[in-house]
Amino acid sequence: MPKYSMAVDLERCQGCRACMTACKVENNTVVSNNWMYVFRFEEGSYPETEMSFLPRQCQHCDNAPCAKVCPVGARFKREDGIVLTDSDRCIGCRYCELACPYGVNYYNWQKPEKGQYDIVDWHDDDIQSATGGAIPPYRNPDLDELYGEEQRRTAGGGHAKGVIEKCTFCVHRVEKGLDPACADTCPTDALIFGDIEDPESPISLYLKDQSPWQLLEEAGTKPNVYYIGGKPPNKELKEIERPKATV
Amino acid sequence: MAVETRPDVGLPQGVGRLTLKWKAFLLVALAVLGFGLFAYGYEQANGMSVTSLRSTGTMGGATWGLYVVMVEYFIGVSLAGIVIAAVSRVFRIVELRPIARIAELLTVASLMVGLLAVIIDLGQPLRGIKNMLLYARPQSAFFGTFTLVAGGVFLSALAYLFLGGRRDAAELAEIPSRLQWFHRLWASGYTDSVDERDRHRRVMFWLSVGIVPLIVIALSTEGLVFGVQVGRPGWFGSLQGPDFLVLAAASGLANLVVLSAIVRRALGDWNRIDAAVFKWLGRFLLVAASAALYFMVVELFTLLYATPSDERQLADALLTGTYAWIFWLSIGLMTLGLGLLIAQAASSNWRIGTLVVASVAISTAALAERYLTVIPSQTHATLLPYDTGSYFPNWVEFSVVAGLFAFGALLIGLFMKVFPIIPMRDHLIPTQDDGVEATNA
Amino acid sequence: MRRTITIGLVLSGLALMLIGFFTAAPWGTDSVGDSNPAFTGAPMLFLLGIVSVIAAAVLYEVLPDRNR
Lengths: 247, 441, 68
Description:
Chain A is α+β, with helices and mostly antiparallel strands. Chain A is built from eight helices and ten strands. Chain A is globular and about 50 Å long.
């Protein structure tokens, strides 16, 4: 059984946020729901300032506090390490959101169609022909499928009002043998995905001679995202250039 | 059977008689409830985005807001009612007998409202009920709310209310009225035989003995909902359970005092709640409010010494920042309430008006304290360096909550019109010579 | 009869609560990994157990005397 993990090389990350966009395109997340988020930090005072970046997706923890508190088992961890949400079972209590120290959970506060980006006219003929007339066109049909041995709707399809969602490591792509959209898109290969149990996998080989650290290690969540280079964030960092982040 | 009735009135304590004042109350309560339902319908149609609630982290909001505060508050209030009813039976505190049913009713009503608030806060309310039955996990602290509070405590309180009222129901069932069928149903064949009284005494004793530890455990799980969270500075800790209980006792007793005072006034000539009742309640409240203030002061001192950066951020928000006015208001009100109680205890002069003022102060302080438990840890205590968040309830949330209060008031108001809210007889603790012709209390 | 029913309900209630508690989620295994109850509806057993115990108290008092 593989164990999927991700390495984030902060020495390579340029903070371009292409991963955020790729995630949004792949998973059709609504405005303000950033399954992948890249902090852009500033430290120090002008002119002695320094910028740094920190991609923050779900850490797919081994000791996932979100899965522990879920009252109905909608949030669960698969054998292959991916922490998922069964959108058919979620009751919208948002307890997982509060249990997670990373702030990676997003609740669907309104109907998905209300939250989609208003950048194109979905009814335009050209758009309709490009999307094959899919209605609604922003809906990736792969996200609606059932996945894993447990055959549960876990890829976040629909973004139904009143349920929680978060990064799925692009489970619908992983099951096809593909990398998550963020890792696939990163122009500097700062995101490396793979089976950490396999010593020959790209991630295992990448981490071999490194000294990775984990986000909020002290919280005891045993994350499956490993950071290389940079340093853990602290309260002295000031976040700059925030994308639109609320409904 | 000797029945406490007046020939010109029929049923006692104004049961079955709809006065103008009561109709006015009904109208107001229904109007508020109606508007609350409208607000909830609006929220259901458009999503919770019409409230002030937002996700924590990048959205910088509070995902649990006023609804969860009210869950904690109402479920907390339920504690005192049933405990007072149980304690008055087990320890035979005769003076508290007149308010035993009010106390039971307060527990039932506040639990109904509190559990309704849980449902209201869910994004998928119907699925919530179904999936809790099918998939609820004991590892989640919510399991306690679902099974012990919604199941155990609520049903025990209903059983308590039902069994405790059978004798009165049997008496009322003999009086011709439009409610006779209801009273017969409630009496469920009760004949007031010596055997029945013995059985009743045994059952009520064991229910009382069982219900106190049950409610303590059940309500502790409410505190644990927060106490087991490592991801939120200010929440994790073993004191959340006891803290919840202590504040629950204070707020519950305070509400019991206010409700008893209202009932006392509403019943007019039928009133049998005398000063002795309030004296007892005042003493209990004094103990509970002292303990609550103690916990608040301990919290204050701990905050003053907060050193880890996340805790410090939270402490600043509470002591001098965004939430300072609520924090100091809650401490001020609790101190004021306690001060009034101490003054009355010292002079042995318990005035109902003063006690009510103290109770309102204590209850408001408890509500503010619940708010401070739930909200600031979400907006001001993220472990990653997200920007500080903000939350203040909007009209939708206030309207829904007002509807909840109206629903609770309606439950109690309607009950008073179908059943005597003060036990008609001194039947709570039958004695050896407690024959069929029991003396009226 | 009354006593038998009461004791029966209390004992079966406690048994249901125990079974419900331990089947509602697999214990002893990785509690995070396994999110499903042993069988769908297991939590209902726990609730049914609570209802049973409380019903025992009510029935003990409400059941009519045999000689009536």
